[in-house]
């Protein structure tokens, strides 16, 4: 259901051209191949509008399986489970309005994949909530942050609460003990920032100061050689001789026929459409899901839904 979409045959074997100056006909997009259940009372194929909505959902599901995390707060496993649950919920809502065998196959596959991890998700979600609470306790409150003794008292009390809440679940008990062990190891130097004005709370905050300085210098001075390499290494540019100067590059672009440029723009727009629902932003994804609901509601009902 989520496998790689078949590539169109190309005369240039082994060369993937996304965009560039090589003219070639723009083929009509085809729906990805998949195994579809075909019950006797279900339609054998979806209309193009329905196929477009389902294809977007399938591509978004495939994207969610590639999410990368950044511990301790951005945990990709929890995020993937939650976002896949949203896709399953949307699929069920769409099926309630109009049945489609491919959409039903997607919903059943998501349910079969998510159900075994429901209990594990709840356990890990509780551990993540502890991390966020500890981070909230340690976050200085401007303009008058708490003193070191007060923050230490709050953190000690919360760690005791974690130990009580974790009893009864082996995974949470082990994680609670780990939180206490790590906190004790950092305890002697954990609260100096509340006594010394201007002292960064973590090494990450100090490193971010240097990164911001580097970004500001790059904005004012530019990246030496990086811009030219970026322009020359995009898609089909690899197949062209590299103009030595910017003037030579503009001269080469001026020789491109307007018809080929228009066709290339269409190809690039079609390519970008494939990644429309590949957004890490939950708010943007929810807005896109709402658009899919509206598109689905305009479709005529089938005989069984």
Notes on the protein architecture:
With 305 residues, this protein is an all-alpha fold. Among the domains are: 31-130 and 284-305, no CATH class; 140-199, no CATH class. It has 11 helices and no strands. Mean pLDDT is 78; it is low at 12-24, 31-46, 225-231 and 235-239.
Topology, number of strands:
0
- The averaged pLDDT comes out at 78
Level of helix content?
Answer: 55-70%
Tell the overall outline: flat
H/E element sequence: HHHHHHHHHHH
Our estimate of the beta-strand percent is under 5%
Radius of gyration: 27 Å
Measured distance between first and last alpha carbons? 22 Å
Biggest beta sheet attributes: none
- The number of helical elements comes to 11
Estimated structural class: mainly alpha
The parts where pLDDT drops under 50 for at least 5 residues are: 12-24, 31-46, 225-231, 235-239
How does the SSE layout of this entry go?
Elements: H1 48-64, H2 76-97, H3 101-114, H4 118-138, H5 148-165, H6 170-186, H7 203-221, H8 226-232, H9 246-254, H10 258-273, H11 282-297
Structural descriptors:
305 residues; 11 helices; 58% helix; flat
In short:
The chain is mostly helical. It has helices spanning 48-64, 76-97, 101-114, 118-138, 148-165, 170-186, 203-221, 226-232, 246-254, 258-273, 282-297.
């Amino acid at each position: 259901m989520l496998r790689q979409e078949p590539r169109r045959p190309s005369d240039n074997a082994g060369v993937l051209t996304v965009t560039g100056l090589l003219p070639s006909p723009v083929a009509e997009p085809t729906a990805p191949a998949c195994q579809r259940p075909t019950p006797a009372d279900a339609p054998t194929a979806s209309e193009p509008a329905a196929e477009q909505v389902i294809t977007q959902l399938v591509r978004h599901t495939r994207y969610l399986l590639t999410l990368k995390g950044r511990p301790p707060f951005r945990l990709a496993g929890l995020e993937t489970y939650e976002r896949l649950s949203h896709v399953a919920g949307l699929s069920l809502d769409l099926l309630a309005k109009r049945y489609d065998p491919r959409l039903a196959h997607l919903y059943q596959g998501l349910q079969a994949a998510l159900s075994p991890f429901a209990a594990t998700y709840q356990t890990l979600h509780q551990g993540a909530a502890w991390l966020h609470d500890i981070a909230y306790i340690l976050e200085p409150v401007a303009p008058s942050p708490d003193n070191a003794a007060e923050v230490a008292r709050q953190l000690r009390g919360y760690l005791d609460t974690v130990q009580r809440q974790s009893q009864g679940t082996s995974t949470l008990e082990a994680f609670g003990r780990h939180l206490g062990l790590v906190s004790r190891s950092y305890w002697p130097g954990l609260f100096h920032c509340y006594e010394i004005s201007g002292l960064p709370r973590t090494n990450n905050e100090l490193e971010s100061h240097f990164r911001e300085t580097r970004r500001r210098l790059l904005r004012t001075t530019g990246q030496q050689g990086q811009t030219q390499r970026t322009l020359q290494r995009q898609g089909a540019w690899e197949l062209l001789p590299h103009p030595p100067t910017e003037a030579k590059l503009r001269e080469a672009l001026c020789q491109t026929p307007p018809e080929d440029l228009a066709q290339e723009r269409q190809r690039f727009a079609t390519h970008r459409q494939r990644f429309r629902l590949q957004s890490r932003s939950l708010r943007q994804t929810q807005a896109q899901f709402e658009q899919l609901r509206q598109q689905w509601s305009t479709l005529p009902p089938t005989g069984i839904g």
